[in-house]
Specification:
With about 180 residues, the protein is α+β, with helices and mostly antiparallel strands. It has seven helices and five strands, in the order ββαβββαααααα. The N and C termini lie far apart (about 70 Å).
Length: about 180
């Protein structure tokens, strides 16, 4: 069995030591936020943070993860309040959402090591493949997240996740185009 820490909790994986960390996280730990994209490390959809470094979990085996600290998108923040998550929403840098967890993890690792990265450093730290092509928005989102993390700015455009019970039960007025009876 391989022992490591995932999202702050000790975990033991009883899988083949050569199993990619991606599959241990998704299949054994049910942490499905980490996405499978290409399986060869080109797309970066499976990016997680391992000991503070953004790594592609499809290229890291469970054995190589022994004793390390892994953070997945589920562990970045339970309520999606991490500045990167909030900034991605505020800058509308999420389209289909498939690549978003890997991008968020790469951006969070970047901001943890450099609280004020330049545009070129942001682009280098986010080699993630996004088929929707939101790259300019990603740069703006990381810049915004950096300002928020440095407490220079706040985000009010990104709502907290979920719907309150009151809102879910609220009666919605019927649509009446042209005020017809």
């Amino acid at each position: 069995m391989t022992a490591l820490t995932v999202n702050g909790r000790p975990v033991r994986f009883d899988v083949d030591p050569q199993t990619p960390l991606l599959w241990a996280l998704r299949d054994a730990a049910n942490l499905t936020g980490t996405k499978y994209g290409c399986g060869v490390g080109d797309c970066h959809a499976c990016t997680v943070i391992v000991d503070g470094e953004a790594l592609r979990s499809c290229l890291v085996t469970v054995a190589e993860s022994e004793g390390r600290h892994v953070v997945t998108i589920e562990g970045l923040s339970r309520d999606r309040s991490h500045p990167v998550q909030q900034a991605l929403v505020a800058e509308q840098a999420i389209q289909c959402g498939f690549c978003t967890p890997g991008i968020a993890m790469a951006a969070a690792a970047l901001l943890a090591r450099n609280p004020d990265p330049g545009v070129d450093e942001i682009k280098a730290a986010l080699p993630n493949l996004c088929r929707c092509g939101v790259y300019p928005r990603l740069v703006r989102a990381v810049q915004l997240a950096a300002r928020v993390a440095r407490r220079e700015e706040t985000i009010s455009a990104a709502p907290a996740p979920g719907i309150s019970a009151e809102d879910a039960a609220r009666e919605v007025p019927a649509m009446n185009p042209g005020n017809k009876p």
